[in-house]
Amino acid sequence: MTTMQSRRLRVRSAVLGVVGAALLLAPLGGQVSADPTTVQESDVAAVDAYITTQLHDLDIPGMALSIVQGDQIIHAQGFGTADSSGRAVTPQTPFGIGSITKSFTAMAVMQLVEAGKIDLDAPVQRYLPWFRLADQEASAKITIRDLLRQTTGISEKDGNGFWSSQQGLEDTVRGLGSIELTQPVGTAYQYSNINYSIAGLVVEKVAGQPYGDYVTQHIFAPLDMQHSFTSRDQAVADGLSDGHTYMIGRTFALDRPVPPVYGPTGSLMASAEDLAHYAIAHLDDGRYGDTAILAPEGIAELHAPAVDVPGTDARYAMGWGAVTWEGQPMLFHSGDVFNYHSFITLLPDGDLGIVLLVNATGFEQLSQVDGIAQGVLSLLHGGPAPEPISAPFMNRFLYWAIVLTPFIQILGIVLGWRRRMRRGRWTLILTVALNLVAVFSLFGLAQLIPFPFPSLVAVYPELGYGLIAVATLALGWSVIFSAMRLLTRRSRRDDLTPATA
Fold it and tell me: Which of 163, 213, 369, 481 is deepest in the core (most CB within 10 A)?
């Protein structure tokens, strides 16, 4: 990998916050004690006060927290409101959990491995014989393990190509034949949502039932996750928190279901209390109470750090990011989808788990919930009061550069129109040059956002339409102004040309 590629991947991780939590959690080193001490009531009170402050400061409608130690939920609390009626968030309130869904898909696959129905190192084509990408030879090499470790070679941008689609899971996977791999199979990590869609379809075919039914029957039910759902209608009936999106710094209610193809990637809904049950199973070798949903060997396989995440200290396992924090392993994953953000982290050596759910998200705010989780972890380990959380510079720069540029262009057009006849050819040159620079620089920056344009419009509409406005204003005004200048010059030449007899 070249230096430029590495830098580009670092920027993308920072912008999207997909596994950027490693960068947020790493700075805690040297500031707190990592000894697995028992969490005290005073620690919990400090955490609640801290989250209440963050809820207010970041204009977050509602949050839910659960903390697990060993095989017990030692704290579960709701904060703020779940909907416009003012209904309070509780630990039982369902939220969208976004990409934390991936760890459920990985667990479903591992359950089928344990049952002898899936081989992690078998090619995907054993279970989906028709599976093809653009390179047929490479397609035959992609294994189930590659899907779960994100090493198929399918890029992040290609994996994000379906956020505006309503096509079904199997139909979408059958239509991947035009996707070109950007890395050789099995060699490099690329966070690609479509990998887990394919894995979910394998679960369906092998288990002989829809993905949602499998997860409900084999994970939700054994873990007593009574407020967790694969069906949005069922979640709404149980009091699903209304989702929100940040636009120009304010939150707005947004009702937007996850596209069908991303069901196994990011569509699950769960409460903080239920995810605490899930965390206990991961911390206790696959057991929750008297129920085992996976053997210890399977849990160890899911958690094993496998492939480096470029530009970070993290590695990716199977549906989990992995880092070393204060000398002990830490597992984590964030989730972000349209109108919800979530974060889960596990410290297996300390038997500690933290779940944080939020009913709002936005381009600038992607990493802020992960930062709140960092603050909770610090407080639980005797650290100082966390610093106020702000959006990373790159997020803010990209967002406001795209949103504000059309207004700057309009101002320039007005000034250019008023002075169009007085500045000569340099006004023309400057107008055209500045507008073209705006277009190319902004579309260059947009390449740091790994979404095809239709998906960008679907996920971050203000950014997508902002780029459309930039291009329209820049190119349109450049053409109009150039034509006007040429017509003006021709008119002047005609006026100066002597009439012939």
Answer: 369
Q: Under a CB-based contact definition with an 8 Å cutoff, are residues 290 and 71 in contact?
A: no
288: number of CA atoms within 13 Å, CB side? Answer: 21
Q: How many whole angstroms separate alpha carbon 336 and alpha carbon 70?
A: 27
Question: What gap in Å lies between CA 439 and CA 442, rounded to an integer?
Answer: 5
Integer Cα distance of 370 and 99 in angstroms: 13
CA 304 to each of CA 14, 94, 149: distance values in angstroms, whole numbers, following the listed order:
24, 29, 10
Residue ranges of alpha helices (H) inside 208-240 are 211-215, 232-237
Query: What long-range pairs does 187-190 form, CB within 8 A, spacing at least 24?
Result: 187/151, 187/153, 188/1, 188/151, 188/153, 188/307, 188/310, 189/149, 189/150, 189/151, 189/307, 189/308, 189/309, 189/310, 189/316, 190/150, 190/151, 190/152, 190/153, 190/154, 190/155, 190/156, 190/159
Domain boundaries, the chain: 3-380, 393-496
Q: From residue 170, give the alpha-carbon distance in Å to each of 127, 151, 223, 489.
A: 13, 21, 28, 61
216, amino acid identity: T
Residue (of 331, 308, 336) closest to 319 by Cα position = 331
pLDDT at 6: 33
Rounded CA separation 232/356 (Å) = 20
Give dist(CA 308, CA 335) in Å, integer. Answer: 20
Report the 10 Å Cβ neighbour count for 370: 25
The radius of gyration computed from the CA coordinates of the chain, to the nearest angstrom, equals 26
**Homologous superfamily in CATH for domain 3-380:** DD-peptidase/beta-lactamase superfamily (3.40.710.10)
Residue whose token pair is 């953000």? 341
Is 398 within 8 Å of 15 (Cβ atoms)?
Answer: yes
- Which tokens is 442 given? 């902004």
pLDDT in tens, 222-281: 999 999 999 999 999 999 999 998 877 777 888 888 999 999 999 999 999 999 999 999
- Report the candidate in 20, 2, 194, 167 with the shortest Cα–Cα distance to residue 105: 194
Least confident of 111-120, 196-205, 437-446: 437-446
Amino acid type, 172:
T
Cα gap 102→114, rounded to integer Å: 18
Q: Is 57 helix (H, G, I), strand (E, B) or coil?
A: helix
Mapped onto helix, strand or coil, the DSSP state of residue 168 is coil
More confidently predicted of 417 and 337: 337
E strands along 277-416, which residues? 287-288, 291-292, 307-308, 315-316, 321-325, 328-337, 340-347, 352-358
SS3 readout for 103-127: HHHHHHHHHHHHCCCCCCCCEHHHC
